[in-house]
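Tokens as discussed.
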């Protein structure tokens, strides 16, 4: 949310052909504060938002109000205290978990792995061992990572269950993470999760061929607030990519929907999972 707001302020400043120093003077601040605001590093005050919009020549009151609402939502999210803040093993996932906790819906596309919210402890543990081979100095670190993943799954239940729409490539169901016993248990658990009323699970079969999401996995995080734009989270081997631009987020949504249409219906997907479970 903060990065998106900062990006919009940056675009307004560029369009107005103003420098960061000039923007800083307009709100009686330092140049470094403008840098931090445009990068989404700090919470933003409504008076600063209004002053900058006026300085940049933005006269549309509804647009200014929308930016102020984004600033308010960002401030509230920063103040929120969650269990992940006391979880030392959350690591780089801390920001994502905070958004996941505030979200109303997730749409996730996975190429080679079962979605984290659907993983069994044994699957998650095996995955952590294979991903972190040679990295972990203490086995307790792996258990901490597994505990964080299991804690996240609480959002699937309770008073405000997270709506999850997952599309998974068939390869993720056949990849023997942890061996036969672990994978059989994982597939059985997956069939149970698919029965939850707030979960929609579809499988993209091999025979579907090429598809729009073939380049990599991603998750689209949606919020209940009307002013909030979808946030896209994608992990690469070396970094994490965040997309909070409205046009780019819409493009990811379109890719997801087109790939979902190529996938099996939910009942057929569950039948394929059961078939693979029997085969292995």
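Sequence:
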């Amino acid at each position: 949310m903060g990065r998106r707001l900062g990006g919009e302020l940056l675009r307004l400043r560029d369009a107005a052909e103003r420098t960061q120093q000039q923007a800083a003077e307009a709100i009686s601040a330092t140049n470094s504060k403008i840098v931090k605001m445009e990068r989404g590093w700090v919470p933003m005050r409504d008076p600063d938002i209004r002053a900058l919009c006026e300085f940049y020549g933005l006269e549309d009151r509804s647009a200014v109000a929308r930016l102020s609402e984004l600033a308010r939502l960002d401030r509230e999210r920063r103040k929120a205290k969650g269990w992940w803040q006391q979880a030392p093993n959350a690591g780089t996932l801390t920001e994502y978990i905070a958004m996941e906790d505030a979200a109303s819906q997730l749409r996730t596309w996975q190429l080679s792995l079962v979605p984290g919210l659907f993983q069994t402890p044994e699957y998650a543990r095996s995955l952590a061992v294979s991903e972190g081979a040679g990295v972990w100095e203490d086995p307790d670190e792996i258990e901490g990572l597994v505990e964080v993943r299991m804690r996240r799954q609480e959002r699937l239940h309770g008073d405000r269950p997270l709506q999850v729409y997952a599309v998974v490539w068939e390869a993720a169901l056949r990849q023997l993470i942890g061996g036969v016993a672990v994978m059989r248990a994982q597939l059985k658990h997956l069939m149970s999760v698919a029965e939850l009323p707030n979960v929609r699970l579809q499988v993209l079969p091999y025979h579907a061929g090429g598809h729009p999401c073939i380049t990599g996995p991603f998750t689209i995080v949606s919020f209940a607030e009307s002013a909030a734009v979808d946030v896209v989270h994608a992990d690469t081997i070396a970094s994490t990519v965040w997309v909070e631009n409205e046009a780019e987020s819409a493009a990811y949504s379109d890719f997801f929907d087109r790939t979902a249409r190529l996938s099996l219906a939910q009942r057929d997907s569950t039948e394929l999972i059961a078939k693979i479970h029997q085969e292995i």
